[in-house]
Design brief:
This protein is α/β, with parallel strands linked by helices. It has helices at residues 10-22, 33-42, 59-69, 84-91, 106-117, and strands at 2-6, 26-30, 47-51, 74-79, 96-101. The protein has a five-stranded parallel sheet, sandwiched between helices. The chain is globular.
Length: 119
């Protein structure tokens, strides 16, 4: 499974990348939504794991643009903000598999990705 990881916090991006790679996933990790959009428009990914709040293009904005090109793409959102409005907004999209609130346990992230492998 090929994962596009979008996380603007360097330390978390490195941790998530190592964790996902150790679990056998191919990961391309970037630090913002705009680069994620550009990469996602050039390369086929199975899942996008993205932070919601990032400078420039948010994870949500990136999702909307990538879904226009690949409507079957699945998303896992992560955020330090468990805002009810954000969660409601994400749940309205069929392609959003789950929302994970930071801090995330390693097993929770891996389980969320593995569930998408079965779909």
């Amino acid at each position: 499974m090929h994962i596009l990881l979008l996380e603007d916090e360097d330390a978390l991006r490195k941790i998530y990348t190592k964790l996902l790679e150790k679990s056998g996933f191919e990961v391309t990790a970037l630090d913002n939504g705009w680069d994620g959009f550009k990469e996602g428009s050039l390369t086929k990914y199975d899942v996008v794991v993205t932070d919601y709040n990032m400078p420039g293009m948010t994870g949500f904005e990136c999702m909307e643009t990538l879904l226009a090109m690949n409507p079957k793409l699945k998303f896992i959102f992560i955020s330090g903000t468990g805002d009810d409005v954000i969660i409601h907004q994400l749940k309205a999209h069929q392609q959003v598999a789950t929302f994970l609130a930071k801090p995330i346990k390693s097993s929770v992230l891996i389980d969320a990705v593995k569930k998408l492998e079965l779909l």
